[in-house]
Amino acid sequence: MKKLSVFFVVVALAIVLTGTAFAKTKITVGAFPDADRAMELLLPQFHAEYPDIEVEIISLGIDDHHTSIVNSIAAGAPLPDVVMVEVGWIARITSSAGFEDLLQPPYNAGQYKDMIIPFKWTQGLTTDGRLVAMPKDIAPATVFYRKDIFEAAGLPSEPEEVQKLFSSWEGFVDVARQLKRDTDGDGHPDHWMLADAGEIVGIMRRADSAGFFDENGEPIINRPYLVRALTIAKQIRDEGLDAKIGAWSTEWTEAIARGTTAVLMHGAWMGGHLQGWIAPDTAGLWRAVHLPENMFANDGGSFLCIPSDGKNKEAAWEFVKFITTRKESQLHMFQSSNIFPAILAAQEDPIYDEEVAFFGGQQVYRLWIEAARQAPGAPVNRFDAVAQEMLDQAVAEVLQEGADPQTALDNANEQVRRRAR
After folding, report:
1. CATH number of 140-297+358-419, picked from 3.40.50.620, 3.40.190.10, 3.40.50.150, 3.30.450.20
2. Cα separation of 139 and 298, whole Å?
3. What is the per-residue pLDDT across 65-85, written as a single tens digit (0 to 9) for each?
4. pTM as predicted
5. DSSP-derived 3-state class of residue 239
6. Which residues pair with 134 in a beta bridge?
7. Per-residue pLDDT tens for 323-379?
8. Using an 8 Å Cβ cutoff, are 66 and 85 in contact?
9. Could you please report the per-residue DSSP string of 328-370?
10. Residues 296 and 271: beta-carbon distance below 8 Å
11. How far apart are CA 261 and CA 146, in angstroms?
12. Which of 107, 114, 175 has the alpha carbon at shortest distance from 143?
């Protein structure tokens, strides 16, 4: 009996050990659209290579996602094992305690620095040189326009011709005048170039190599460059050349899908949004050109971070590396959702010479490569969110209330100075 008891103990221990050997580590990844879908599509490959790591992607809208991160940090609440952060929020996150320095063992992320576009690497660093955010993607910006709507308005519609129309912002405004039309004859315009004139301020700000703050930490959102941007936006609004529709609203997506607005100015990811969910039925009707006056801008991009209090940091790092350091993974996300690679080698693949059916056979990927290589990477500051809030307020005062651009930006700059301390 004693030998039999020992036998059962040994068997039981073997079962426990065997079960432990095959137990999976589960990690959660906090993300937002469309990166959530792009990473989901990569999970079968990741699970095939890492069968002992199970990944669950938790997705929220971009604003809700970042608000949740900030609130969790403030409350000391647990975060997902991997946290995705958009560039507009990155300085606020990097200035917070609680994220791993990926330059230190066991991560040793410094070995990947030369693989990644330089400005993106710099944006993930803290002021004291820690890398707490691993670059994932960038977002070279271009003008997206509906070729058929330009033709209906009697305008040139081929990319080379449209680029000439946009050789200046004055030319851009002139095109807006011609795209404003009353197609049903009721005496009121029902077609416009832009949904919201404020889009001009956003894209011009991102085309500037300065950030919201100078090297001494003083706010600079009232500088002449942004005054000009807001003045152009005011002209568009005053002449009734935009639809006065806020971005990301249901009305906004419907206007794009129906073709009542003809132009968007955003990062490459907008191509994925158009194809994937905003306007898939418009395939073949879109084209793209560089921004007016041959400006180049980076409009977005994101990073992956690992919370210091995470319970599965080793598995989390394997996932982060799989997404951010592999050319194949970066190309897969680009092909599925136009999420533009931060890895330089992934920007040199023959895929970028392809003719893209959604854009009527235009080699639009090559256009994005040109923009990516020339887009400035503005420095980030932990008070960027405050500055963006005050800039948005100034834009609203000018476009909705008719305020003077210089005065509105001066007031906004002073508000930032008071709050950014």
Report:
1. 3.40.190.10
2. 5
3. 999 998 999 899 999 999 999
4. 0.88
5. coil
6. 304
7. 999 999 999 999 999 999 999 999 889 999 999 999 999 999 999 999 999 998 788
8. yes
9. HHHHHHHHHH--EESBTGGGGSGGGGPPBGGGTTB-HHHHHHH
10. no
11. 9
12. 175
- Mean pLDDT score across all residues of the chain: 92
pLDDT in tens, 222-245: 999 999 999 999 999 999 999 999
Strands (E), 147-224: none
Find tokens 């977002």 and name the residue: 139
The pLDDT of residue 302 is 95
Structure tokens at 347: 């920007």
Instruction: Determine the residue type at 247.
Output: A
**DSSP strands (E only) in 177-331:** 263-267, 286-289, 298-305
For the chain, what percentages of helix, strand and coil (3-state, to nearest 5) are there? 50, 15, 30
For 148-181, give the secondary structure using H, E and C: HHHHHCCCCCCHHHHHHHCCCHHHHHHHHHHHCE
Yes or no: say if 164 and 294 are a contact pair by the CB < 8 Å rule: no
Q: How far apart are CA 397 and CA 387, in angstroms?
A: 15
Q: Which of 131, 134, 102, 111 is nearest to 301 (CA)?
A: 134
Quote the CA–CA distance of 195 and 387 in Å, as a whole number: 24
Three-class SS state of 362: strand
Tokens of 2: 């004693």
Burial state string for 199-216 with b = 16 or more CB within 10 A and e = fewer than 16: bbbbbbbbbbebbbbeee
CA pair distance 255, 18, nearest whole angstrom:
58
Closest CA to 228 of 160, 190, 172, 307: 172
Task: Report whether pLDDT(390) > 80.
Answer: yes
For residue 242, report the phi and psi dihedrals to the nearest 5 degrees. -125, 160
Tokens 């992934």 belong to which residue?
346
Report the C-alpha gap between 103 and 321 in whole angstroms.
13
226 vs 202: CA distance, rounded Å: 9
CATH 3.40.190.10 domain residues, the chain: 25-139+300-351, 140-297+358-419
> Could you tell me how many helices (H) and strands (E) the chain has, helices first?
17, 8
Evaluate if residue 3 carries a pLDDT over 60: no
pLDDT tens by residue, 115-169 = 999 989 989 998 889 999 999 999 999 999 999 999 999 999 999 999 999 999 9
DSSP state of 37: H
The arrangement of secondary structure in 25-139+300-351, i.e. its CATH architecture, is 3-Layer(aba) Sandwich (3.40)
Asked if residue 219 lies in contact with residue 388, where contact means CB atoms within 8 angstroms, the answer is no
